[in-house]
TrEMBL record:
Family: Belongs to the purine/pyrimidine phosphoribosyltransferase family.
GO biological process: GMP salvage; guanine salvage; hypoxanthine metabolic process; IMP salvage; purine ribonucleoside salvage
Transmembrane segments: none
Protein name as catalogued: Hypoxanthine phosphoribosyltransferase
Enzyme Commission designation: 2.4.2.8
Domain Phosphoribosyltransferase: residue ranges: 28-173
Organism of this sequence: Corynebacterium lizhenjunii
GO molecular function: guanine phosphoribosyltransferase activity; hypoxanthine phosphoribosyltransferase activity; magnesium ion binding; nucleotide binding
NCBIfam families in UniProt: HGPRTase
InterPro entries: HGPRT, Hxn_phspho_trans, PRTase-like, PRTase_dom
Places the protein is found: Cytoplasm
Keywords tagged on the record: Cytoplasm, Glycosyltransferase, Magnesium, Metal-binding, Nucleotide-binding, Purine salvage, Transferase
Amino acid sequence: MHDSKDFNVPANPYGSDVEAVLISEEQIAARIQEMADAVSERYRDSGDLILVCVLKGAVFFLSDFARALSIPSQQEFMAVSSYGNAASSSGVVRILKDLDRDIEGKHVLIVEDIIDSGLTLSWLIRNLEGRRPASLEVVSLLRKPEVVKADIDLLEVGFDIPHEFVVGYGLDYAENYRDLPFVGTLKPEIYAD
């Protein structure tokens, strides 16, 4: 991790809200290309690949990842919401926006921005498996291994990060900071009550 005192934080529309850059724009781009190369090789002879983006956070990752693939892909979008008692993650999920097409017999790759507990993703995997795709795999740009509760097999992970609140490259705080080109942390006073 680079402290902003030791590292020039790139110019951004949020001024000095960013405390530190954890993963630079260049590191993200290089790792996405490596992930895309591995996925392209795996699905080279599989026919069409459907990338399922979990809204909203994974949009930036999906966009760059899809363009980095050397095989054709189609994109689909889902929005899901976990709900239940705020003190504990219930794992109960509802679909806010479902897929626009049938995935039966298709090769499906879920494209996630970050895996924290993994409970919502675990539910999503079970839901999509029930739709009988030919295959179902997951790639995630980020994972917080310290807090993962669900046992999920991942085809590719971009970066394992510490259990810190991060923003940028699709990740938000109160719908802000998604458009930062890097992944970083905010100054605590920004989100402290």
